Write the structure tokens for this entry.
Amino acid sequence: MKKSIQKRIESALLVVLPKGIKLLVKKGEGDSYLVKLAGKNVKVTWAQNGWLPQIESAVYPKPNLVVAEKISPGGAEFLASEKISWIDETGAAEIALDNVIVSRSGREVSARKPLKVWTQSVIAAAEVLLSGHKATVEEIHKVSGFSWGACMNALKFLQQEGLLTASTKRGRDSARQVKDKNKLLAAYTEARIDKPSKITLVAGVIWKDPIAGLTRLGRTFDSNGTAWAATGMLASSILAPIITDFGSYQVYVEARDMTDLELIAKNADLKILKGGRLTLVAYPKNLKDLTIYKNGIRFAPWPRVYADLMTIGVRGEEAAQHLREVMNDK
């Protein structure tokens, strides 16, 4: 049975607090609770997975303490700047209250708990919906390329998860509606992070101007008949400019396996190099029809760029948050 938020907050506190400190988690409102800690009342807020967007939305009005599944680097940095204490379920904590001070790192976790029910067709359906398409079986089938039955099951699953509202219409054109775009994006992102592509290849490139370098590489891919789309920092720098220091570059290319990737790299005169700055990632099934064209460059759909950014640290989280805001305003 899934633990309630109140129980999760209590468990997280008990793990990190020194022995002898008494606590009582009282009933709260929504995700916020009043906790009597060492004789003083402390306002505690639950911030879900602990990613930066979830934390930012959880801290107004300002709590004394934030608890989450796993506080991300960007989330920890933000909370420090706001002088808000935090704990996560790995056992990590930074608490600086009047009567309690704790600083500790958590246990290493290789990945979040796998979301087995989020199949590739469900992930594809969510990506199609977040890209602005209607929530009909026909539309998801047309854009994603998954079978009619898989698309029907994907929409049914998303509805059961409370991410879509039911349609009052019947027939092939009946459409559900996205209930909360930000919640769907968060669930999709977690599923994407839990199911990363295992078919990748790292190559060495020397690009003084990364945009120009990507444009040249894209022309080569086009002339070779290779479908491609940029993602990560490089993509966000054009879709929603905020960061100009890219660090490394990620590009999706249409490939079935490592042999395909190696051939694509060879035909583009790319040198395979461990520690190189360019990572080629096998093209996902539904990416082609969702590709964004801007400034002569192909980009992965913005939800995919967002999810990829969320895996690359504080700067990636900041870029992801900005990208979400920009795309939601359109």
The first helix runs from residue 5 to 16. Confidence is low (pLDDT under 50) at residues 110-115.
